[in-house]
Amino acid sequence: MLKIGIGGNLGSGKSTVAKILASFGGRIIDADEITHQLLKKKKIIKEIEKLFPEAVKKKVLKNKLANLVFNNKENYKRYYNLIMPEILKEIDKRLKKKKGKFLIVDAPLLFETGLYKKMDYNILVTAPKSLKIFRMIKRGFKKEDILQRLKFQMPDRESKRKADFVIFNNKDKKSLKEKVFKIFKLIWR
């Protein structure tokens, strides 16, 4: 079963690329969706409450948690060390369920975590920083929050060294589809 990893910073368009690829018969494993599911599990909630008691009131207060995590390197490390092994474990489980023609792993930290090593091909999706910010503001994020989160993500220049393909997502969706299709044709010969 062919495994394709999609990585990139916040606002780059990696989820859109994953959806376009999925339209060719693939199945998406979405790391963000897995994270949201994990944040509802009692075991994880209890662990987060130990680390960040102010971020839990019967359930995880996601905005409060994000403020604590993305404004302090030590908090980020503590949260990352708690949640990332759980995310990777779940991705591994889903990779073993061979449904669809191929699997697409949509993971913001694909390159940082080493997850890219488990893929047959890796695609980095990138865009100018101003465009990433614009896209995230359109989704309801505040500019200062976006900038804080971007500080914790691997710079594109480092990710490029680990990627098999790079998509510069700086135009419209039609252009993006064409770029994805070209890569898909190279992969799926």
Could you describe the 3D structure shown?
The protein is of the alpha/beta class. It has one domain: P-loop containing nucleotide triphosphate hydrolases (Rossmann fold). It has 9 helices and 7 strands. The chain has helices at residues 14-22, 31-38, 42-51, 62-69, 73-96, 129-138, 143-151, 156-160, 173-187, and strands at 2-7, 26-30, 56-57, 59-60, 102-106, 121-126, 165-168. The strands form 2 sheets. The protein has a 5-stranded parallel beta sheet with strand order 2-5-1-6-7, sandwiched between helices. A two-stranded antiparallel sheet has the order 3-4. Strand 3 and strand 4 (59-60) form a beta hairpin. Helix 3 (42-51) packs antiparallel against helix 5 (73-96).
List the helices and strands and how they pair.
Elements: E1 2-7, H1 14-22, E2 26-30, H2 31-38, H3 42-51, E3 56-57, E4 59-60, H4 62-69, H5 73-96, E5 102-106, E6 121-126, H6 129-138, H7 143-151, H8 156-160, E7 165-168, H9 173-187
Helix pairs in contact: 2-5, 3-5
CATH homologous superfamily (4th level) name: P-loop containing nucleotide triphosphate hydrolases
- Distance between the amino and carboxyl termini: 14 Å
Give the count of structural domains: 1
- CATH architecture descriptor: 3-Layer(aba) Sandwich
Rg, please? 17 Å
Looking at the structure, the CATH topology is: Rossmann fold
**Beta-strand percentage range:** 15-25%
Tell me how many strands there are. Answer: 7
Low-confidence stretches: none
Shape: globular
Question: What's the pLDDT, averaged over the residues?
Answer: 96
Structural class: alpha/beta
Cross-sheet strand order for the largest sheet: 2-5-1-6-7
- Number of H/I helices: 9
Helicity level: 40-55%
Largest sheet: 5 strands, parallel
Sketch the topology as an H/E string, one letter per element: EHEHHEEHHEEHHHEH
- Which CATH class is shown? Alpha Beta
